[in-house]
Amino acid sequence: MGATVYAGGTTFRVWAPMASRVFVSGDFNGWGTWIELGNEFNGNFSGDVAGAVKGQKYKFITRNQWGSDAWRADPRSAWQENSTGSSIIYDHGEYWWNAQQYSSPGFNEMIIYEMHVGTFHDSPGFGPGNWNSAIARLDHVRDLGANMIKVMPAYEFAGDFSWGYNAAFPFAPESAYGHPNDMKRFVDEAHMRGIGVIFDVVHNHYGPSDLPMWCFSGDCLGSGGEYFYNDWRKSTPWGDTRPDYGRPEVRAYIRDSMMNLTHSFRGDGLRWDATKYMRTQNGSDTTAIPDAWRVFRSINREINATQPWKISIAEDFGGGDFITNDATSDTSGGAGFDSQWGGDFVHAIRAAVIASNDSGRDMNSVRNAITQRYSGRHTARVIYSESHDEVANGKARVPEEIWPGNAGSWAAKKRSTLAAGVVFTSPGIPMIFQGQEFLEDGYFQDTDPVDWGKNSTYSGIRTLYRDLIRLRRNWFNNTRGLRGGNVNVHHVNNSGKVIAYHRWESGGPGDDVVIVANFSGTYFPSYNIGFPRGGMWYARFNSDWNGYSGDFGNTASIDTVAYSGAKDGLSHNASFAIGPYSLVIFSQ
Predict the structure, then answer these.
(1) Which residues are bridge partners to 9 per DSSP?
(2) pLDDT tens digits for 301-348?
(3) What is the SS3 assignment for 165?
(4) For residue 285, what pLDDT band results from cuts at 50, 70 and 90?
(5) Are residues 21 and 117 part of one domain?
(6) Bridge partners, 21 (sequence order)
(7) d(CA 375, CA 372)
(8) Ramachandran angles phi, psi of 544, nearest 5°
(9) Kind plus residue range of the DSSP H or E element containing 353
(10) 296 SS3 class
(11) For 365-447, where are the E strands, in sequence order?
(12) 44 shares its domain with 181
């Protein structure tokens, strides 16, 4: 489907089930006489055009059943001059890949860095950032220790500045970000640094503007035509443009868009936006759209069958275990996603650190956030304290929420890094949002680039994040338990606002990890909790170290010996100092 280059020409093939005739015209014929495509009598029209070569612009002309003609961009365009311009012939075989040996990490070893290409590395006042400017900062992501980048939607959308969730051409990379080869080079460069790329995809709605598939055959069917629902199911919070999941050809369109990313662009995973608004009309189960489950199941089953190491993540916030339960077939079982965004986690952890008074911090909610899981798998949730949604839409960055206008304050630094500490030590796949690692303030906007000056100003905070990531990845082979699935929150002091939990994979020295988090402004010179085993426990991390920030207290949370004596349901106990709003990690 689309425009496929062959030696000496290009084959054009398009789905236009209600058109009477379809033509193509472009640079290859001087935009003169229309070249008619053959009717396959299955809804598709196709034809070979000798002399049509890569880089040339083209459009289709569809003639409807009443004889009216309309010029259309290709709904499967692989390259657009812009969202309202012509399609461009592109040869996916022309890019030479350099990173031939890349292997993506296991789900339990993933650390996700969420990135918006337009603002990740850009200067205010010009066009948005692009693939090449983002490549220039990939060393930063590598040095931080993140091994997966989740790219916000990068398919062609209306205008040059956008979050990307208004995709109009789900096969063509955003023209303001560069050439399709630039997008491939971004993935290639990430792979050469040991970093995988997860692409954000939007199929709960399209546009709603600049849509090439809108009324494509020339018959709108009372609304948007054959690509879209034309009844009550068409309506979404973003416009009346929900794809018709009941049509096999539309399901194929969505499937091919996904596989284009995992195959042609060598993406290492997919993050599906707002799946709740695929399976329901308005987010309520009373307005269910059962057709969407066939989309979930068939695509996830195909990924699992052909590239099972590539992760498929849903942003659902409502489907629970059904989203991450196995899809037994295309029509039964769960949705088959490997993981889903953990809304129950982020809201509880943000509330616990943003509350202005210690009395407002609920350690029971924190405990529930740490232990919650989907489908019995610890990797079935992505956990975070900041994401693009959580730092916009009336909300801001965590340091900004803690102290509006003073995100660099002691309180904002201490409590935002406390939240990050819980993210990297809880079961799940940890994720941070661009700039979080150096205390980016304000709220996310597609016209406000990341302030890289803060990378120097708050270099100690960046080091804190790096240290947490290294421990989460078992960098020094002494914290294996942080990537395991087991957790026991054995100490909950809601009056003192202290919580402690034990993490392990298989157990034993180098595996068992004990985390203590103080959510209060109180300094505890000697705090006693249970430990799973006796002997020396080494303090691998102390967020109160003044090497992270000169105004931190440098509390001597040092190695401690656990002695026999039951405490908190464990066989041994130990005492240690812990600073205010601090997190300490112990292991043997």
Answers:
(1) 6, 50
(2) 999 999 999 999 999 999 999 999 999 998 899 999 999 999 999 999
(3) coil
(4) confident
(5) no
(6) 63
(7) 10
(8) -90, 0
(9) helix 343-354
(10) helix
(11) 381-383, 429-433
(12) no
The amino acid present at 292, given as its one-letter code, is A
Beta 44-50 vs 38-39: how paired, if at all?
antiparallel
Asked whether residue 47 falls in the same domain as residue 165, the answer is no
Find the domain containing 38 and state its range. 2-72
Count CB atoms within 10 A of the CB of residue 300: 24
Which ranges of 265-320 would DSSP assign to H, the alpha helix?
Answer: 276-279, 291-306
Please check whether residue 506 lies inside any domain of the structure. yes
What is the per-residue pLDDT across 187-234, written as a single tens digit (0 to 9) for each? 999 999 999 999 999 999 999 999 999 999 999 999 999 999 999 999
Q: Are residues 16 and 149 in the same domain?
A: no
Judge if 300 and 154 occupy the same domain.
Answer: yes
CA distance 423 to 520: 18
If asked whether residues 158 and 59 sit together in one domain, one would say no
Using CA atoms, how far apart are residues 203 and 324, in angstroms rounded to an integer? 18
How many domains does one find in the chain?
A: 3
Q: Looking up tokens 């989907």, which residue turns up?
A: 374
Domain boundary among 72, 93, 123: 72
Q: DSSP state, 263?
A: I
Rounded distance, CA 143 to CA 454, Å? Answer: 16
The length of the chain, given as a count of residues: 588
Evaluate if pTM is beyond 0.85. yes
Crossing angle of helices 343-354 and 410-425, in 10° steps, is: 150
Strand-strand pairing, 311-314 and 269-272: parallel
Q: Kindly state whether residues 44 and 113 are assigned to the same domain.
A: no
114, 188, 210, 273: the active-site residue: 273
Query: Of 46, 72, 98, which closes a domain?
Result: 72
- For residues 249 and 45, what is the distance between their CA atoms, to the nearest angstrom? 14
Bridging pattern class, strands 381-383 and 429-433 = parallel
Give the residue from 185, 186, 188, 182 showing the smallest Cα distance to 101. 188
* pLDDT band at residue 123 under the 50/70/90 scheme: confident
Provide the CATH number for the domain around residue 583. Answer: 2.60.40.1180
Two structure tokens written together for 415: 């409590």
CA-based nearest residue to 469, from 424, 428, 504: 424
Q: Which residue out of 174, 189, 315, 544 is catalytically annotated?
A: 315
Q: What CATH number does the domain containing 31 carry?
A: 2.60.40.10
Same domain, 46 and 127: no
81 is catalytic: no
Is 315 an active-site residue?
yes
**What is d(CA 533, CA 538) in angstroms, rounded to the nearest whole number?**
13
CATH no. for residue 250? 3.20.20.80
Place 126 in a pLDDT band, splitting at 50, 70 and 90. Answer: confident
Q: Is 238 exposed, middle or buried (0-12, 13-18, 19+ CB in 10 A)?
A: middle
